[in-house]
Amino acid sequence: MSRWPRVLAAPFRRFGQATVRAITSLPWSSGGPTSTAVSTTSAMSLVPVFASVRIIADNVASLPLQLFRRDGSSREPISFVPDLFWVPDMQGDLFTWLHKCVLSMALRGNAYGLITQRDSLGFPTMVEWLNPDDVWVDEENPVRPVFYWQGRVVPRDQIVHIPWVVLPGHVVGLSPIALFAQTIGAGLTVTEYGRSWFINGGTPPAVLKNAQKTVSQDESEEISDRLSARIRSRKPLVFGSDWDFTALSVSPEESQFIESMRLNATQIATIYGVPPEKVGGDSGGSLTYSTAEMNSLDLINTTLRPWLVRLESAFSRLMPGREYVRFNIDAMLRTSVLDRYNAHGMALAQGWRSRNEIRALENLAPLPPDQGGDEFHVGTTAPAPPAAGT
What we know:
- By secondary structure, this protein is of the alpha+beta class.
- The chain has three domains: 1-202 and 258-333, no CATH class; 204-248; 335-390, no CATH class.
- Helices cover 38% and strands 15% of the residues.
- The protein has helices spanning 3-13, 40-44, 47-62, 94-108, 176-179, 181-199, 217-232, 256-272, 292-316, 337-350, 355-361; strands at 65-71, 74-78, 110-118, 124-130, 135-138, 146-149, 152-154, 159-163, 206-210, 243-247, 323-327.
- A hairpin with a 2-residue loop joins strand 1 and strand 2.
- Helix 3 packs antiparallel against helix 4 and helix 6 runs antiparallel to helix 8 (256-272).
- The chain is flat.
């Protein structure tokens, strides 16, 4: 028997048999598929939705997590990595683990995690993210909600619940796919219209007319086939005295779906708070940034920060004592080598970073103990390391 079923069943074994309910007692559809025609899968097939969710999930999951301990008004960084962020689930991949969490929040408005392992002190060391379709929450009493997974009651202390946007008096976050089903559905309709338009040939590419002779249906088909063959072979066309060839262009009415797609992308980008131009929309202004660093700062401040704070708060509640979690957003800031080295020089001169800390940022090994790499120096420059043998 594999380890997964045993680990997964452990939380329920402690609390007896699974709860048995009448078919009419509570919705057996769990948190289930939305009642609208727009499902999560169909919504993800829309490019702006996929792009918006991907931008958020990729950037959040790629940021390193750091652990700190509160000490009065100061904080102390902790060098070791908790088991929860080292092997977070059975796959043991932190990036994928964070990615699943953010995807669940962005698409369904909630991430539900089942705690499957704890350390000797009872703190979680492994959390499996559940399919929101399998989870239903009885929030009639929002102070003491009851969580159901696949029809069984799950003790509150076995669930990690991270909602996105929650209304007062509720526990479950709003699902953006269900809430904006009409907007997303409009995008899917426009996309299907464009696909059908091109598959069915769209507007005829040209008109070939003879002003002197009435052409029968059979002759028309033969002339059309010959003309199409010449166009495909890129050979010149030769006309008689009475033929008039007119190329057709797409009418403004038939090209409106392009503008509709751009408008829909802008609306979806607004829902997720991502820059519209990154998902095929229109920002509506001329504001641009001259450096990659400014672009990254704009993405962090306008898009990612609320997501990071939600996750930091939820993960910190799983840590013991005064320990808490922070994402290192500096990892997103890409500067030039010269700017980075100038910043390191200022940190050394002002005494708030040691040379070994800076070497760690540059992926360099620490200096030997006799060269004072862990010392802090306030001044214009850090002292030179002692000469060998002195």
